[in-house]
From TrEMBL, chain A:
Residues 262-365 form the Pyruvate:ferredoxin oxidoreductase core domain. Belongs to the pyruvate:ferredoxin/flavodoxin oxidoreductase family. Keywords: Oxidoreductase. This is Transketolase C-terminal domain-containing protein. Pfam families: PFOR_II, POR_N. It comes from Fusibacter bizertensis.
Automatic annotation (TrEMBL), chain B:
Residues 39-68, 69-97 form the 4Fe-4S ferredoxin-type domain. PROSITE patterns: 4FE4S_FER_1 (PS00198), 4FE4S_FER_2 (PS51379). InterPro entries: 4Fe4S_Fe-S-bd, 4Fe4S_Fe_S_CS, PorD_KorD. The keyword rRNA processing does not apply. Signal peptide: none annotated. The keyword Ribonucleoprotein does not apply. Its cofactor is [4Fe-4S] cluster. It comes from the Bacteria. This is 4Fe-4S binding protein. Keywords: 4Fe-4S, Iron, Iron-sulfur, Metal-binding, Repeat. It comes from Fusibacter bizertensis.
UniProtKB/TrEMBL annotation, chain C:
Keywords: Oxidoreductase. Residues 10-171 form the Pyruvate/ketoisovalerate oxidoreductase catalytic domain. This is 2-oxoacid:acceptor oxidoreductase family protein. It holds the Pfam family POR. The keyword Membrane does not apply. It comes from the Bacteria. InterPro entries: Oxidoreductase_gamma_subunit, PorC_KorC, Pyrv/ketoisovalerate_OxRed_cat, Pyrv_flavodox_OxRed_cen. It comes from Fusibacter bizertensis. NCBIfam families: PorC_KorC. Gene3D superfamilies: Pyruvate-ferredoxin oxidoreductase, PFOR, domain III.
UniProtKB/TrEMBL annotation, chain D:
Keywords: Oxidoreductase. SUPFAM superfamilies: Thiamin diphosphate-binding fold (THDP-binding). The keyword Kinase does not apply. This is Thiamine pyrophosphate-dependent enzyme. Residues 47-209 form the Thiamine pyrophosphate enzyme TPP-binding domain. It comes from Fusibacter bizertensis. It holds the Pfam family TPP_enzyme_C. InterPro entries: PorB-like, THDP-binding, TPP_enzyme_TPP-bd.
Length: 404, 101, 180, 297
């Protein structure tokens, strides 16, 4: 194990190196670029025995990865923002074919207005693509998830492509201390890829990415959905096994901080979680019963674990670095649906922030908790139409530079 | 006749029995094309000079040349008539399909 | 937590030095650190920022720096409102200049000047002042061990360039310490 | 290289039982290519007739490994297959793409260009039936001047398609590709020889084969082969190769058969006026003058 001071992008590249993909096909885009630069350097210096394909677009990056995966080899690609959307049609293609491709996505805003900074609009577009989606908090988790991603994706029960999301710049370009495991440790954890059922091989020739008409199509899709939901248990097992081997784990699909007795809980994804940890700790020290829930996976969505963790809360706040135009934050919609399924009756607030790389300050998060605490003390039910609770009142835009 | 054979395919019983991914075994024929024909090509073996032109030009590959005579796989012949059109000695006749014939 | 902001122009190594300080503090001093640039495209000559956070505990804060313990200005032409943002009462401002007095006059905080350009020219042959300014920061504040900084420099540069920078570093540390 | 003829061509069929229209020229091109390439072939097909007619669950017409690619991605998926096989050490295989004219010259051009630029070890077939047939006969970049399609209607104001065929062969050659050829299902021995040649090429090969579509061209199904031959004989198509940086014209007829005879057989050209046929001939003559000047030694 080596302790090094590296950026999030470097950590991803190190994780990929340790996972030993057979082929890397990627197209550079800010703020992912350093990942592909490092990987091509590793291939050049021989520290990674992979084929590096200089594809001419993101669309071809994923298409080539599909070709690689279709014969049972391990594929890696990386992208961001417009690049992710450019390869969009290939995402359900790969997931329908149950190809365990791993992709790093540097979360970045979408045009227009043009913007290269971090928010989560890009990957939210892809929630329905059939890919597993994890959001990491720091560079260490980024590295570790590259390794876990292959182990989960290639599990015979899962066989689903895997997207590891890092907040653009805030994670990709920030240097911090990362423990880099040895190749031997990783090899012991992540065995070579071994696919048989869904690949083309000389032993059992297959036709892939077939058509299935209205007579058969629906069953393929139901199977895909059911098995994606069931991948929750594999994700949990792999994370537990990782913790056992490497001494650090991530608590499966979500992590809770002081949620058991919390009256208000803030739900975060990705790097904002780190800042929220500081604020939550401060407020606890002041005697306020506040909790924090780090939602790591958005697909599969951890409905049960989430509602269980939130069940004692009276107010839940959901942080979204995205907007589904004409509605609300996408994670908010998902959390609400989960709560509704379990018949919960929490008050829910949606905090939309960080769009286009807008800073999310400790004060902003403090303000989120304050708003929730006010809700807690409001005797009226915010869901009651007679109270000032039109749907838009549940949405709070944070750190806006002018009046709404 | 040395041509791919139909497989005996049974619908998956449960969703779980569906293939993993959008996959299927190759060489997996479950329905024939005989019903596409209005005319069927019939080889006049007397006139046939075994030039193999029909074998070469058949878009469906239904003409088998492995035996003593050229043979047509009527399960998969669509009756397009390319073979008869291309046959120099005019040894292939397009004959109207009759019901039950 | 110690928070440091570096002001420079694209190509002057302001982010490199932010990273060197973080590397020294974390890998060699055994603390925790974070280093990041002002995000966005890098353009040679354009004003850029580098940031370093150092703490005894894992740093989870992902927001931008709002206050700074130390502000280091690699190029005195950058002096202006931007460098005065987020200063605390006991912040120290370190500037590459022969005339620190004129800047001190504008601030209540302590301003330290160092003619780093001349020193860099003497030792490196080029006016890249980032390691000289790092040396000055360490000599004044002791925020990291000098040996750790030298290890970080060795770790990050090819041996020939690292050697010259370490010589410059040693010279500046001695020079500044004798003034303090 | 031994000539491949109907006699020595294998009896084994690797593309069989597909649901293409009767008399489909494209399916013949794929069928013969597969026979020459053999069972260690990995075929990549984008959206188009050939994928639509041969992968209909549970009826699979390829006997070898085969995959449908996203429409724009034939070159990229085939390249990925080749890279995957190479990385896994699976040798003596062919990674092959079979795309239509639209899948090659329009939506798939970028991925094809990328693959040729990288020199990926793939054989790329453009099965050119001169329009988007799978979706019901719409104009593509390879639809000839004067063709009536559902998106280039012919009427009082327009003669059908107003543009000439995009020059794919020379676009591909301009990448300095290892091997490229044009072919026609009217000249099958020439076509098969070119497929055989591509098998031993190091780097990317491209074979552009003209393949009539009875449905889209408005012809009876039995004349597919003879019509494809006539396309070459009247000079609207040509047989050529690009190898070692040089162009070569494989067939250089002294005289062309009349263009009029060729177009009048086809519903898609029925409306053409004499002046428009003259335009086709003029374009043909210009093209051939250039090819004869530059490609004939």
């Amino acid at each position: 194990m080596a302790r090094r001071f590296v950026s999030g992008n470097d950590a991803v590249a190190e994780g990929v190196r340790l996972a030993r993909p057979h082929v890397i096909s990627a197209y550079p885009i800010t703020p992912q670029t350093i990942v592909v630069e490092r990987l091509s350097e590793f291939v050049e210096d021989g520290s990674l025995q992979s084929i590096y394909m200089h594809v001419e677009s993101e669309h071809s990056a994923l298409a080539a990865a599909m070709g690689v995966s279709s014969v049972g080899a391990r594929a890696f690609t990386a992208t961001s923002s417009q690049g992710l959307l450019y390869m969009a049609e290939n995402l359900p293609y790969a997931s329908g074919a149950r190809m365990p491709i791993v992709m790093m996505n540097a979360n970045r805003a979408l045009a227009t207005p043009w913007n290269i900074y971090g928010d989560q609009m890009d990957s939210m577009f892809m929630l329905n693509s059939g890919w597993i989606q994890v959001y990491v908090e720091d560079a260490q988790e980024a590295l570790d998830m590259m390794i876990q991603a292959y182990k989960i994706a290639e599990d015979p029960k899962v066989l689903t492509p895997f997207m590891v999301n890092l907040d653009g710049f805030v994670l990709t370009h920030t240097y911090e201390v990362v423990d880099i495991p040895t190749q031997e440790e990783v090899d012991a954890f992540l065995p070579p890829i071994n696919l048989s059922e869904n690949i083309m091989s000389m032993e059992a020739p297959k036709s892939l990415c077939i058509t299935a008409g209205n007579n058969y199509n629906m069953e393929f899709k139901i199977k895909q959905n059911e098995e994606m939901i069931e991948s929750i248990s594999v994700i949990e097992q792999v994370d537990a096994a990782f913790e056992k081997q490497f001494g650090r784990g991530y608590n499966g699909l979500l992590e809770t901080v002081d949620c058991e007795d919390a009256d208000v809980i803030l739900v975060t994804t990705g790097s904002i979680t780190g800042t929220a940890r500081m604020v939550q700790k401060t407020l606890r020290a002041e005697g306020k019963k506040v909790g924090l829930l780090k939602l790591r996976y958005l697909r599969p969505f951890p409905t049960k674990a989430l509602t269980e963790a939130l069940k004692n809360a009276k107010v839940v706040g959901v942080v979204d670095k995205n907007i589904s135009f004409g509605y609300e934050g996408t994670i908010f919609t998902n959390v609400n649906s989960a709560l509704m399924q379990e018949g919960a009756s929490q008050k829910v607030d949606n905090f939309i922030c960080g769009l286009g790389g807008r800073d999310v300050t400790k004060e902003n998060i403090h303000e989120m908790y304050e708003k929730m605490l006010v809700h807690l003390e409001t005797s009226a039910d915010v869901n009651d139409a007679n109270v000032a609770s039109k749907p838009q009142d549940r949405i709070h835009y944070m750190n806006v530079r002018c009046a709404l | 006749m040395n041509r791919p054979k139909m497989v005996n395919f049974k619908d998956p019983e449960t969703v779980r029995d569906y293939p993993m991914g959008a996959t299927c075994d190759s060489d997996h024929l479950t329905s024939i094309n005989a019903g596409w024909r209005t005319f069927r090509p019939v080889i006049d073996q007397e006139k046939c000079i075994k030039c193999m032109r029909c074998f070469l030009v058949c878009p469906d590959g239904v003409i088998d040349k492995s035996g003593d005579q050229l043979e047509i796989d009527y399960d998969f012949c669509k009756g397009c008539g390319v073979c008869a059109h291309e046959c120099k000695p005019k040894a292939i006749n397009m004959v109207k399909e009759a019901i039950n014939g | 937590m110690i928070e440091v902001r570096w002001h420079g122009r694209g190509g002057q190594g302001s982010f490199t030095v932010a990273r060197l300080l973080g590397l020294a503090a974390s890998v060699y001093d055994g603390k925790y650190a974070q280093a990041f640039p002002s995000f966005g495209p890098e353009r040679r000559g354009a004003p850029v920022l580098g940031f370093t956070r150092i703490d005894d505990y894992k740093i989870t804060d992902r927001s931008e720096l709002d206050v700074c313990d130390y502000v280091i200005i690699l190029d005195e032409t950058l002096w202006g409102a931007d460098v005065k943002v987020g200063l605390k009462e006991n912040s120290i401002v370190l500037i590459n200049t022969k005339n620190p007095e004129r800047y001190q006059a504008e601030l209540s905080q302590r301003v330290v000047g160092l003619d780093a350009t001349q020193m860099a020219l003497d030792y490196l042959g080029i006016p890249i002042t980032n390691t000289a300014m790092l040396a000055a920061l360490v000599a004044i504040t002791g925020v990291v061990e000098t040996e750790s900084c030298k290890s970080a420099i060795e770790d990050s540069m090819n041996p020939k360039i690292a050697g010259k920078n370490i010589a410059l570093f040693d010279y500046v540390v001695k020079e500044v310490a004798s003034r303090e | 290289m031994e000539r491949i003829t109907a006699r020595n061509l294998t009896n084994e069929e690797l593309f069989y039982g597909h649901k293409a229209c009767g008399g489909c020229g494209e399916s013949l091109a794929v069928r013969l290519a597969m026979k020459i390439l053999g069972e260690r072939t990995f075929a990549s097909l984008p959206a188009g007739c050939m994928s639509a007619v041969s992968f209909i669950y549970p009826n699979m017409a390829f006997r070898t490994n085969a995959i449908i690619t996203p429409f724009a991605s034939t070159g990229a998926v085939a390249a990925g297959v080749a890279a995957g096989l190479q990385a896994l050490g699976i040798k003596d295989t062919y990674s092959v793409g079979f795309a239509g004219d639209g899948g090659t010259a329009d939506i798939g051009l970028q991925a094809l260009s990328g693959a040729i630029d990288r020199g990926d070890q793939i054989i790329y077939f453009c099965n050119d039936n001169e329009a988007y047939m799978n979706t019901g006969i719409q104009k593509s970049g390879l639809t000839p001047f004067g063709t009536k399609t559902t998106t280039s209607p012919a009427g009082a104001n327009l003669p059908g398609s107003t543009t000439m065929k995009k020059n794919m062969f020379e676009i591909v050659a301009a990448h300095d590709i290892a091997y490229a050829a044009t072919a026609s299902v009217g000249y099958l021995e020439d076509y098969m020889m070119k497929v055989e040649k591509a098998k031993s090429v190091k780097g990317t090969s491209y074979i552009h084969v003209l393949a009539p579509c009875p449905t889209g061209w408005g012809t009876t199904s039995e004349i597919t082969i003879s019509l494809a031959k006539e396309a070459v004989d009247c000079g609207l198509w040509y047989l050529a190769e690009y190898e070692d940086g040089e162009f070569k014209l494989n067939k250089n007829p002294k005289e062309f058969t009349p263009v009029e005879n060729y177009v009048k057989k086809q519903g898609r050209f029925k409306h053409l006026k004499d002046a428009e046929i003259k335009q086709l001939e003029a374009a043909r003559d210009k093209k051939w003058e250039k090819m004869r000047r530059n490609w004939v030694k």
